Amino acid sequence: MHKVLRRFLYAAAIAAVITAASAAGLTQGVLDGFQRRASDALFPSAPTDNRVIVVAIDRKTINLLGQVSPRRADQATIGRQLTAAGAAVVV
Predict the structure, then answer these.
(1) pTM for the full predicted model
(2) Which residue, among 90, 2, 4, 12, has the nearest Cα to 52 in the 3D structure?
(3) pLDDT digits (tens), the chain, 91 positions
(4) Which sign, positive or negative, has the C-alpha torsion 79, 80, 84, 85?
(5) Is the Cβ–Cβ distance between 70 and 78 less than 8 Å?
């Protein structure tokens, strides 16, 4: 009985160490490359469409604006500029 209990405790300890190391690696970004490759392998992307373009606001612009979301007037200006550039849909 002691032998079975000892094996179980060893297995539980090893599982706990592996889980803790994995969690630490994921939170610190150590496993980012592996995580991206695994994600790409498990969930391959669909074919891309050259007609679709995603426009986003980066951190530098947010810092320049001093806020996360541009004012409505700025959003309207951006929408008009995208439409003038040929965008069929602006969301």
Answers:
(1) 0.42
(2) 90
(3) 688 889 999 999 999 999 988 888 777 777 778 778 888 888 888 888 888 888 888 888 888 878 777 788 888 998 999 999 998 888 8
(4) negative
(5) yes
